[in-house]
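Appendix B. One record, verbatim.
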Amino acid sequence: MVRVLFLTLLISASAQAQELYLKDGLLKASATITPSDMLASEQNNFYISGFLEYHMTKKTSFRGETFMFVDGKVPEGLRPINGGMHTFFSAQYHSSKNNFDYSLGAGPGLSVMRVLDGDPDWIYIVSPYKTKYIPSFIVQTGVSYYVGKYFHFFANISYVATPATHLYMGDKNRINNLDEVMVSAGLGFQLPTKK
């Protein structure tokens, strides 16, 4: 009896594993915590990020993604970034094998950031942060593994290019950009919109 039950479960699991979940018309979404490392300064940031992605075909999709700034850490001194968000709209190319989906994408965006800006002699006396609207660009690669009709696991690495010249770091040095490398991973959700 135990053997029959075990065999039935094994056959059911293998049949489920062979079903492919990446299809045309798939709508995906998720939210997660995303750490980042700034390339022009020693600040490490944490964001809450979320995406919404629609697969036109198995190989192409469009993705909207937002990163909301939560906190940033520096060894000493003032932080170059003290708030804000990045929002992007990108096109993604996919290559899949079984239920693994590898993606590469890029697209434009807008960063609304509270950054250090001002006369370095006055930076510690007045509020040093100003809100800047900065055109940005994202390049992203990632992998997803579909574990069922409605769930998948994902991991992404993103390079966010944010050119912002003449920003002070608090020690009279200027930085030329707010570029970051971001890593996000977690559980995603999907909904097939076509049969």
